[in-house]
Amino acid sequence: xxxxxxxxxxxxxxxxxxxxxxxxxxxxxxxxxxxxxxxxxxxxxxxxxxxxxxxxxxxxxxxxxxxxxxxxxxxxxxxxxxxxxxxxxxxxxxxxxxxxxxxxxxxxxxxxxxxxxxxxxxxxxxxxxxxxxxxxxxxxxxxxxxxxxxxxxxxxxxxxxxxxxxxxxxxxxxxxxxxxxxxxxxxxxxxxxxxxxxxxxxxxxxxxxxxxxx
Length: 214
Prior knowledge:
The chain has 214 residues and is mainly α. It folds into two domains: 1-131, Leucine-rich Repeat Variant, CATH 1.25.10; 133-214. It is 69% helix and 0% strand. The chain contains twelve helices and no strands. The protein has helices at residues 5-10, 15-25, 31-37, 43-55, 65-74, 81-97, 102-111, 118-128, 135-147, 155-166, 174-187, 191-213. The longest helix is centred in the C-terminal third of the chain and has 23 residues, at 191-213. It is elongated and about 55 Å long.
């Protein structure tokens, strides 16, 4: 593996291997260049660098984490959808390792559920589902996830995430169940779609109904 960071990023090496190599050889002196690559004009470089930063175990460098997070958060506004998705992924991984930042970071991820690109919305859903034991997150995310059941691009992902989150929630508003019921009725006219989604939809419906009735 080449030692120049930009060569590694532009090469075919997976981001997790690059992260491992950087940790072995020392991240401190290479960090400025990594930050600089987040602003590279090539979106593929920005995307891969973001994944690399997400894969580094920053618990070994806790004094650097706030700076790294601030740089990654900026990429949630990147004009390239793949870079935005990579930023969401990195924030999710870092949030798992640094619970103290979740209250700040997870609302940003919930906001990304409104992104214009479906791959960004899908990544945001996936990250939200990591935190199914966070009651506050559950209640803040569920209404938006229910809306996404109407989104053909991410409805299956949203249904699976809802099933996971709903199973942890002690309280779900009645209007959420009503909206979900309506979505199921509308979907009944699309049998080819329901063959794929039926199991997740039915399980989610049962969970939501039982939680509200309890």
